[in-house]
Structure formats: C-alpha cells, structure tokens
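User: Second chain of the day. Same drill as before.
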Amino acid sequence: MAADDPLNVVALVSGGKDSFYSILHCLANGHRVIALANLHPPPPRVASTSTRATVRSGDEDGSRAEVDNAINDLAAIRISPSDITVAQHQHGSLLGLRADNNSQDDDEIDLNSFMYQTVGHQVIPLYAQATGLPLFRRAILGTAVDSGISYKHPDGHQEEDETESLVPLLHAVLKAHPEVNALCTGAILSTYQRTRVESVALRLGLIPLAFLWQFPDLPLSSAAATTSTFSTSTLQPADTDDAQLLRDMAAAGLVARIVKVASAGLGEEFLWENVASDTGISRIRRALRRFGGDGGRGAVLGEGGEFETLVVDGPPVLFKGRIVIRDDDKRVVREGGGSAWLNVREAQVEMKLGTDITSKTEDQNVRIPNLLDPKFKDALDLLHSKSLGYEHCTISLHEIGQQPSPLSLKLTNSISQDWYFVGRPGNIEAQTAQIVDEVRQQLHEYSLPTTAITNTIIVLRRMSDFPTVNRLYGALFREPNPPARVTISCGDLLTPQGADISILLTVQPRMKQGDRRGLHVQSRSYWAPANIGPYSQAITYPLLTIDEDKNRDNDVNSNLPLAVSIAGQIPLVPASMSLPSVPPDGDDNLRLQVTLALQHLWRVGAEMQVQWWSSAVAYFPRSPSTPHAKHCALLAASAWKAAHAVPSSASSDAEEGPDLWDRKYNPLYMTYGGGNDVGAAKPGLPDWEVLKDFDADDYSEGGLSQRALPFVFSAEVEELPRAAGVEWHAHLGFANVGFGDVRLYSSHGSDKDQRTAMHSVVVESPSGDVFVQTVAAYQDSDAAGSGIGVRGTQHMLRVVGQILQTSDRSQLGFIEVNPKLTYINSESFDLLGETESLQGKGAIIPCRSLWDSEARKLDMVVILESRWGRKADGS
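Assistant: Same format as last time:
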C-alpha cells in the first residue's frame, strides 16, 4: 500500500472533543472510519477487586479466580447503530436511551485514569446510533504501572498497565473488521498519552494517526483566517491565540460540553458550557487568568486536566443524530479539591432529517494547516529568485568574542565517544548481523546499556538494503526513544570494496540516569514526519560532563548546556508520509523538498529547545551533471540563510520534559507544579542572544546575521531514503545555552596555506567547561580539477594531519585528536583498496562531490570535536 493511499481507521473515542475532531481530520484526509472503540470503567465487582491479581502467577487467597471470572464477563462488546434500546452484558444495562443506575457505586464511577477519560462513559454507547458506526467497548483493567513519560511495553513479569486494556479491545475490532489498518487518537500535547497509543498500535500492525499533535502551534491556513464564525474583536493572531483549536472545532460544527472541572479557576458553574463557542472560550480564559495567568500552554484547551468534555453533536458527515440530555438528567458529583463532574442519568439520540445528513466530506469546514510555516514559505519564495547562496565571511578571532586561552584549559575525558563499524565481505544480512553483534559486545565490554547510544550514521552501498538493515539494527533497541539516525547510500564509493554497510555510533559512556531525553513521534500528523522504527527524531544529553572529583554547585549543574542529536530529515509530507508530488516541474519540486525538509529540522529542533546549530550538511542524490549539483548546493545554502534570517517564534515545551498534561494530571509529575517555567515561551531558533558580544544593531538585515551562521555545505551521494531529493543533517544542536555563551570563529588555516578554511563554534558552560567543534573545509587547487588526477589515501591523511596541526598551532588549542567525520570528494581522492591506512581515523563518508555555500567545489570536509575543562588549580 502506498503511503498516501486511504486508510481504514478505527477511532479511539472517550466522548471528548479531541477524539472527535481527530476523526474529522481523518475524513478530511480521505481516510475511511470503519469503527469506534472505547474503554470504560469496570463494574463495581471488578473495580473493587485487586487488579494486580490479574497478571500474577498462582492463586493469592482465591482472588485470582474471582477476577478471572469477572474478566471473562468483560470481553469486548460490539454495539451496532441499530442497538438503540440497550446494550446488554452479564452485568446489566450499559445504556440505551436510559442509564441503569441502580447501583450507587456504579452511578459515581470516575477512575481519574491517567490515560482515559471516563466521565460521561454512560453516554458512549449512543455514539453508535449518532454516527452510524459500530462501537466496540471494553472495561479498563489495571492501573498506571508504567508512569514514565514515554511508554515501555511490559515484559510479562510486570504488573498490568491500564494501557494494555487497549490490546484486547482492538483485537475484537480487527476480528470483526480485518480491513482496519490504522488507529486514530486525539493526542494534542501529551507525550504520555501519545506514546502509549503508538506502542499498542504498532504492536498490532496499525498505523497510528494523531492529526492534532502540536496542532495549536501549526500555521493557520489562509482560508481559516477568513472563514471564522467569531467576531473579529475576540480573535487574536494565529501565533498567539491558544484557543484557535477550539475555534476550529466550532467552525467544523462540533458541540462539546464541559462535564468535569478540576482547576481552581473553573468552578462547577462551568459544567455543561460549550467550549467550542465564543462565549465558552472567553469564560474559560478569564477564569484561568484570575488564578495565576492563563494556566500555561494548552490550559485553555484543557490539556492540563482543567476540564473534560462530552461531544453531543457534530457535522452531518459524522453525526447523523445529536445526543440530547435534559437538565433533570444531569447530576453534579463533587469530589473535593475543586473537582466536580456531571453524572448523566438519561440521554437519547435525536436523528437528523433532510439536508442535515446530505453533507459530504469535502464540504466540511475542517482546517488543515498549511504545509509550510510563514518563515519557510518566505524561504521557498527566496529559492525562486535569481540570487542564491551567500558568502561565509572571514572573521578575526576578536570580532565575535575573545579567544579562549589554551593555557587555562585542559582536555577532559570526553562524555562522548565515536564507535565506527564496517561490514566484512558477505551478504547484507550477514554484514548487518556482524555489526550488531560487535555493537553488543562493545556495549558489554564497557558495561553500557543501548541507551548510551545517542546518534547513528548508517552508510549503505545500496539503499534497497535498508529494510533488511532496519530489521536487524532495530533489534538492538528495546527501550523507548532509540538514538537519532541518519541514513545515506554512497554506492560503489563505499570502502572497503567488499563492505555493503558502515555504521558510526555516538556513545555517551559517562551519561547518568535521567540525563537522556528523547523525541520519538511515531504517529502521522501535520507536524513533522513520523519516525516509525528504531530511531527517534532527536536525543538530548549533557554537552559537557561534570568532573566528579570536584564539588560543583547543583544550580550550576542544572544550567549546563545540552547537546541535541537530530535524525536526518527528508521532505516527507507529514500527514501522508509521501514525498511532495506537486508542483510537477522538477526544479520547483526540488525547491519545495529542500525547504520542507529544512522546516522539519527546525520543528524538531524547536521542540527540543535548540538555540544554535554547530554545522549542517545537505545530502543530495547523484546529480545528472556538475551544473545540477552546483545548483543543489546553492539551493541548500540559500534556504539555510533564509531560515536564519528571522528568529523563530516557536513556544512549545520540550517533548520529554513533563508536559502540562502530566504536571497537572499525572501524580508522578505533579511535583513540577505550576512554577514560573510552566508554559513559558522558549527561545527562538536561532537564538541570537547566545552569541558572545551580541549586538542587535549589528545583526540587522544585511548585517552580520546574514553571514555569521553555522557552517553549511552540500554533499552529493548516491541515493537517499524513499528516493528523496534532499536530506538535511545537523551535526549537533545546542540547548539550555546561556546569554553570550556561544562564540564563532572563521579563518583560514594559516597565512601560508589558504586551502583550508576553519569554522569553529565554541560553547562555554557556567562551570567553566568548554565544547569546541571545528569544520575544516579543504580545497586543493592542484587536485583533479587541474588535471593532475585524483590523490590517494596517504595524501588525504597528510591533509588531515595538517589540519590537526594547524588547529593545534593557532586558534582553539586543539591537540591531535581523530576526526569525528571526514567527508571525501571522490573526484579528488581515491580511497578504494586503501582501507588499512584509514583504521582509527573516524567515519569516512565518500561523496561524489562536495560544495560550500558559494557552490565552490571542496575536496574534503573534516568535523572535529573536543571538550575542555578548567585546570585542577582552578586557573
């Protein structure tokens, strides 16, 4: 099945607004909704019995048998649209047109589940009749055993987590509807909820869909700005209106009533308010602001558990009838602590007649965000102009900050190591298995878990081998958030000749528990491409390690800068996971791909709070001609310049830090509370104020900001994943960096040797430690272009040695260290058959051509990294 083929979807519904609005987006994207699925509170006999006994071996005081009998009674049930009277099972009436509330306990069930909304569960069966879709239901069993932000599948020896209740429910759906191949959820900002649904979906072979993920931060479409049903006096700019999603729901025709409040700002007088209305939005915003601001990011949407909703009506493309609940059939249940909810005693479906049910999907007012943010739309426009590329200025060491003195620093035991593996002769399966075994052995030798790996670069001879490699490589990683990854194919240039794969791992051997955070979104959305498989969008870890022999202040430790490894970004349309198909013109399509992939890099970076990049490379597949390769390099350089021209206004929280939903609704993270950082806007990307001696006047349009950028270059390789036209690879991102703690240096290697340009970024921490990355771009005027012919391995090694020696003599106090990455232009260096000389010289990436930002051909690009600390005497 092609990536953009229509999917057959089962939609998880809780009764809340988000799940139903997500269904409307499934329909708007051309997918078919086959069934609804819901988890509800168990009957009192099960709810009052220890659920721990359900997964323990043996019989503990007879409780195992009792619970097993109850579970058998609670098998998933199917409610057809024609079942309008009652849905029966052994425990009596769930609900038809009237709820059976003979049991006082059952009358007031609200599990306060970390995962599922349960208020209003009595009304859920009526959605089958209201929508005309079959509804599958099952009881929630277990509790939140795994309270981590990212979910780890239980291994059978753990107590059952409530998340696993989804598995038998979806098994029932798949048995009745084997054509179902996707699962839809309404996750907006909560990593806790999204990762759990993704875990279950992928285990069952279902494609997870979360069209609302990060939706509040995505750009308004031009149509949405002109079709709002609300008065212009209440509208705010799209990038500041945190209630825009509620307005979108109202414009689409959803009616969502508040059925629970759990916030000091929202009292029980808000119960039954329609949140998808101008009046409801205004009331909620005013109430939250009376109690300490607006409650943080997502509070107006109820993402922090401030309120829960029940959808009673929607557009006719989904709702063939509306749910009617009389005032006399709603009873307020007060839980204390500011929490109150509505218990529904009776409800009915009022079917729509006539024109109400003739609406088509394409007639619905469901806002789909623009593919490009305004910033990257401007970048795309720039790529259509005749002026492409930009010049790297040569900056003296004192123009941007002062040179750190090597005399006051010492080379530290780096927190980072690079492990390089090359396949030995054999088929691709054997070579990959060999490398995986070697990785396991080396991890065992150093007593390290796989989570110590933060980044991977995989170089293949044939991109067609990628599925095989992915399967075997993926077996390494069983924990949530596997390392970020970059994959390219170098064709017959890969060395040695018998190797079909090489892998570079970046490993953090001194990283402590809790230091590592990841971003692994596996659902389709409008935000950025899903990473379905053994790689994350990004991994964050400490850039500089604390010397355990020194007594450093904890406040200093918490302010240390972070390194962010980001996966290679190709230009997939996030909602369909397919490459852009329009415009049809090849060059226009390439411009769009360059811009879209760079936007993905920016969105992932912004989500991880990246403030500055160290350097970046744009990989392009094999070009039909040298002029075309040069043109690609100019497109990449121009897009890079445009992305840095205006700081981003992104204001989302870090993915793996406890999000607002978790802080307010998940007891494990309530200790984070509502501190000053909740909902606080984060720095833009780029954050110019991290630069040493930053002066806003100097960084005006046309000034230094247009030139003093992270170094970027282009590499022509053989092929990219999915036959993409470009892949952006940022070598490193920096987060949690203080004002003025980044310095840039750009110069030639020496007065006598003008062939090597050195571009360095230096990051200092409050502890006095220093991180340095230098990109050495080498251009030999006597190389192949002059007719002398290609050079061999020994010449390449001499060049690398000269670069190391130059850096040692001049600018940043390097000693001889092996390069992290060496990009080689195969037109200048022939490395085939000379692999012995390359052992221990870091990862070699052979390219068909290399280009700087002015589309000048390069012979070599070397990436060097080192970390420095203050001397023991404190000098």
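The mean pLDDT is 79.

User: Great, on to the next one.
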